[in-house]
Structure formats: C-alpha cells, structure tokens
From TrEMBL:
The protein's name in its UniProt record: (3S)-malyl-CoA thioesterase
Keywords recorded for this protein, A-Z: Magnesium, Metal-binding
Signal peptide: none
Ligand binding (Mg(2+)): E122, D148
Gene that specifies this protein: mcl2
C-alpha cells in the first residue's frame, strides 16, 4: 500500500509479556500494533516474552492491522536472539531501537533477510544521520522515540515540544524524502485526553502519519486527529471537481473558497480521499 495513504493513525505498544493486553488488542481499533520486547518488558521476562509473543501471533486475530515487533538492541544480550525469533513469528515488520546509523540496519537485515524493517529514531546521532538511515533499502517506517531523545538531549518537558522540534523535523524530512511512513512519539500522561489531542494535532500539522500510543484509552483520540475530517474530505472533493471543470475550459487554475487550486493541490486532495477510503476499508475489517 502507498505509504502516503496507508492508515497508521494509531500505533499501540503492547508489552510482549502481557497475555491479557495481547488478547485485548485484538478488539481495539488501532491501525497498527508494536509488540514490544524492549522497554516494556523486564529483564527477567525477556526470554519468556519471546515465546509468549510468538504463540499469540500464531493464534492470529489481529485482522488487517500492521503487526510490528520491537526487539532489544544489539548492544544487549537479547538483541540477536530476538531478531532470529522474529523471523519465525507471524509479523509484518521488525522494529530496531536506538538506530544511529545505516550500519545498525545492515546488521539487523543480515539476520532478518527480507522482513521489512522499521527504525526507532531516538538518539542525537540518529537525528543527524536520519537521511542515510531513511535510504536503507529494507526500511519501511520510522518511529520517533521522544522519551529517549529527551533523555539524551537533557531537555525539560514542554507542552509545545520546542526542544524536540529540530529532531522531529530532521526525521520527517528524511522519511518523506524516501517515501517512508513516520509516526510520532508517545504521550506519557495516558489519561490526559486534552494534552494528547493537542500533541496529535501538532504532529498531524507537521506531517506525521500517526502517533505511537501506550494505552487503549488513547486510540480514539489519535484515530480522529490523524484521519481526514469531514470538512477536509468535502473540500478535497470540491477542489477536484472545480479543477476538472477549469481544465475542461482550457484554464490551469481553479478557485475554491477564495483560494487557488492548481494541479499540486489536486494531488493532495486525491491523497486525502485515498486515505479516507483506506481507513474505511481497514475499519470494515
Ligand atoms: C501504562 C500502563 C502500565 C497502564 O497499565 P494498567 O494500569 O494495567 O492500565 P489499565 O488498568 O487502565 O488497563 C485497562 C485495560 O487495558 C489493557 N491495557 C493496558 N495497556 C494496554 C496496551 N498497551 N495494549 C493493550 N491493552 C492494554 C489492560 O490489560 C486492561 O485490560 P482489562 O483487564 O481487560 O480491562 C499500561 O498501559 C502499559 O504497560 N502500557 C504500555 C507501556 C509500553 O508499552 N511502554 C513501552 C513503549 S513506550 C517507549 O518505549 C518509548 C520510546 O521508546 C521512547 O523512547 O519514547
Ligand atoms: Mg525509547
């Protein structure tokens, strides 16, 4: 599916060790799931989590949602065995944490072969190497790790995320240049609906495809914020109709609601409609 219109509005992390959460996710309206073997799993549970997750994925029931497994880094004792284990799982992609250079992805691809790779972008070096990382041939998506990034940058929390904007922007540019999906970082205060909505709106305005989430209560907010609104769909339809009419009369520029509509605006309008249709198809199961 075209990464520019593929629904990735809500990407929910689920600890790979928690059977109850793994079961619950089958009934949640998240567009994609990150089955986590890294930060959400304690060292004591790491090895068993691999088997638990493999068994749950084998049972199926996750529908058309994208199933991504986040492994531990290769600087840990679990990373390589996780990568091998994922190749035997019923997963759509593998997610590598703390990617700092394309060499990290090459090391993973040497184990996972043709399995699509996603990269956690969460280190200062990763931000600086974002363009080279995005160009790796196996890479399909980027996930912002804003907690790790804030830790490494020694920033303080700000609702406007000013200290993180340079890194977010670099990764967005890199992902869009290579036609990748890119999803924003998590909002930690998982019961603060207003704060989450504000951060989703900011991410959507910047061009992110969706938001990573940590709790089921966050799914509906992200789904609404990252879906084309009724007004956007209506405007897109009117722009396309007006432009086609204008072209038929030999003109190159239409006007809708007092604003010009050229062929590039029509391309955006078509993406809006394609995304709305893709969301409908995903929801229909
Ligand atoms: C945050 C939580 C620890 C809260 O857990 P809990 O108190 O158990 O929540 P609730 O009682 O409100 O749960 C209600 C029901 O929902 C299920 N549940 C909870 N979380 C999830 C989930 N993520 N996916 C699916 N289902 C979930 C519970 O099982 C309850 O079900 P039921 O019993 O049937 O009613 C917890 O939500 C949690 O652990 N969340 C995930 C945390 C996580 O994944 N962290 C790692 C990813 S974030 C990250 O790594 C950041 C990144 O790398 C960076 O650097 O920024
Ligand atoms: Mg992280």
């Amino acid at each position: 599916m075209d990464p520019r219109t593929r629904p990735c509005r809500s990407v929910l992390y689920i600890p790979g060790s928690k059977e109850r959460a793994l079961e619950k996710a089958r009934g949640l309206a998240a567009d994609a799931i990150i089955f986590d073997l890294e930060d959400a799993v304690t060292p004591e549970e790491k090895v068993n989590a691999r088997a638990t997750l493999a068994a749950e994925l084998a049972k199926g029931g996750y529908g058309k949602r994208l199933r991504i497994v986040r492994i531990n880094g290769f600087d840990t004792e679990w990373g390589r065995d996780d990568a091998k284990a994922v190749t035997e799982m019923d997963a759509d992609a593998v997610l590598l944490p703390k990617v700092s250079s394309p060499a990290d992805l090459a090391a993973l691809a040497a184990i996972t072969g043709d399995l699509p790779i996603w990269a956690m972008m969460e280190t200062p070096r990763g931000m600086l190497n974002a363009a080279a990382i995005a160009a790796h041939p196996k890479l399909e998506g980027m996930v912002m790790g804003t907690n790790d990034l804030a830790k490494e940058l020694q920033t303080r929390f700000r609702a406007d995320r000013l200290p993180l904007l340079a890194g977010l922007g670099l990764c967005l540019l890199a992902a869009k240049a290579e036609g990748l999906v890119i999803v924003d970082g998590v909002y930690n205060a998982y019961l603060d609906e207003e704060g989450l909505k504000a951060e989703c709106d900011q991410g959507r305005d910047m061009g992110f495809d969706g938001k990573t989430l940590i709790h089921p209560a966050q799914v509906a907010v992200a789904n609404t914020a990252y879906a084309p609104s009724e007004a956007e769909v209506d405007l897109a339809r009117r722009q396309i109709a007006a432009f086609e009419e204008t072209r038929a009369s030999g003109q190159g520029v239409a006007v809708v609601d007092g604003r010009i509509v050229e062929n590039l605006h029509v391309a955006t309008a078509r993406e809006v409609l394609a995304k709305a249709e893709a969301i409908e198809a995903l929801q229909a199961g």
